């Protein structure tokens, strides 16, 4: 099998293929993973999905844990802490718990939520309630894909060819800048760059780029949880929350006090890395081609919002970067058969970490349906 793209989608498929006894060649134009898969929060955000995506995300979980054990990277069954800072935010969490049950959505008191955030005891008044979503996983995005790529390269039936750009695919053959590579089955997993390689397919699915502003900050003293932390703006972006009756009220409420955050498409969330520093973000800007310029106001808004949740006046930024993922108004997944034995798979909804191993499992048991 030949897999184009050493991001998490290509590598999860390579892991499953090797686990199923196949031989695999992974091709990537770069020298190591530097795409969306290393730029994100390392959050396998299972519980916040709904419907078919929830089922696929739940399938992803055991795959992540098996891969982490095999390739030796950190994967924490740390869940997600959702912080509620108003009665409406708490109502959305209550409604989710009513549907999913108390094991999947564990209610937290204001005190428990504030304590989990490491908030000082006299700085907790703004917290109303919270919930722990225990099914979610955490990985270090800077470690997971590179470790998996190493594992594939060191496997007796695996190889990874870096610095090899793919220029075309047809049944049995992948054309690259270093000559042809052959395989009975070919998977094209090039993320948002699907429009460079397969412009007609990308156009037909309405693929565009979503650009996100991210930063790594020093953790305030006391903040030690490995759980991902989501807030009100997160509840406006993930289907598990947006499908609750109180979500419409929540949108009005957030619009009233934080319209600028909605204007930059904010999902105010953060995750702690094993070294103790914290990944914070993010904003969402959509375009076919991404501009290189970032308005500093975007960072001011995000950093200020995260600082408020953590109960500190400001955060010390250690790094900033832009992430890009594939997005489409036509659906969360692009799965197209291009020719016999040749399939393209891009996640077009910003949840590729969450779905990766579920998609790979579905590819190999034949249940992954094409989307056009
Ligand atoms: C800031 C940010 C935050 C995110 N947060 C989350 C989150 O919390 N949870 C979640 O589930 N998801 C999240 N995502 C989304 C997730 O990161 C992506 O959906 C996922 O990483 C996509 O994986 P991929 O393998 O398709 O793409 P990529 O990781 O971009 O990999 C694609 C690979 O293909 C290679 N490639 C492209 N074209 C060619 C070519 N012609 N020839 C050879 N190689 C090629 C590239 O070099 C690259 O290595 C986030 C994304 C970003 C950017």
UniProtKB/TrEMBL annotation:
InterPro entries (alphabetical): FAD-dep_OxRdtase (IPR006076), FAD-dependent_OxRdtase_HpnW (IPR017741), FAD/NAD-bd_sf (IPR036188)
Transmembrane segments annotated in the record for this chain: none
Domain of life: Bacteria
Keywords: Flavoprotein, Oxidoreductase
Gene3D superfamilies, alphabetized: D-Amino Acid Oxidase, subunit A, domain 2, FAD/NAD(P)-binding domain
CC annotations in GO: cytoplasm
Name recorded for this polypeptide: Oxidoreductase
Organism: Streptomyces rubellomurinus (strain ATCC 31215)
């Amino acid at each position: 099998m030949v897999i184009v793209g050493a991001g998490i989608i290509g590598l999860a498929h390579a892991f499953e293929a090797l686990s199923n006894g196949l031989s695999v060649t992974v091709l990537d134009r770069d020298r190591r993973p530097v795409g969306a898969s290393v730029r994100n929060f390392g959050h396998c955000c299972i519980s916040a999905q709904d419907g078919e995506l929830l089922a696929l995300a739940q399938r992803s979980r055991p795959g992540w844990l098996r891969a982490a054990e095999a390739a030796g990277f950190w994967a924490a069954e740390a869940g997600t802490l959702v912080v509620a800072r108003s009665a409406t935010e708490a109502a959305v969490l209550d409604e989710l718990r009513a549907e999913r049950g108390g094991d999947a959505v564990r209610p937290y008191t204001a005190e428990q939520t504030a304590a989990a955030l490491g908030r000082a005891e006299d700085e907790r008044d703004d917290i109303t309630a919270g919930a722990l979503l225990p099914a979610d996983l955490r990985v270090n995005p800077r470690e997971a894909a590179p470790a998996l790529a190493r594992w594939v390269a060191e496997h007796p039936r695996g190889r990874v060819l870096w610095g090899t750009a793919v220029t075309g695919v047809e049944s049995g053959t992948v054309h690259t800048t270093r000559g042809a590579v052959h395989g009975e089955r070919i998977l094209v997993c090039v993320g948002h760059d699907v429009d460079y390689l397969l412009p007609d397919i990308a156009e037909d699915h309405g693929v565009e780029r979503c650009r996100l502003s991210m930063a790594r900050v020093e953790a305030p003293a006391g903040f030690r949880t490995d759980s991902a932390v989501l807030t009100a703006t997160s509840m406006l972006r993930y289907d598990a929350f947006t499908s609750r009756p109180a979500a419409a009220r929540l949108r009005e409420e957030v619009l009233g006090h934080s319209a600028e955050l909605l204007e930059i498409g904010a999902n105010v969330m953060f995750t702690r890395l094993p070294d103790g520093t914290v990944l914070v973000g993010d904003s969402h800007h959509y375009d076919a081609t991404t501009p290189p310029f970032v308005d500093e106001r975007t960072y001011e808004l995000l950093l200020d919002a995260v600082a408020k949740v953590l109960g500190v006046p400001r955060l010390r930024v250690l790094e900033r970067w832009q992430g890009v993922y594939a997005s489409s108004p036509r659906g969360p997944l692009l799965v197209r058969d291009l020719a016999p034995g040749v399939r393209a798979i891009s996640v077009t909804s910003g949840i590729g970490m969450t779905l990766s191993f579920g998609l790979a499992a579905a590819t190999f048991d034949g249940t992954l349906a094409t989307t056009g």
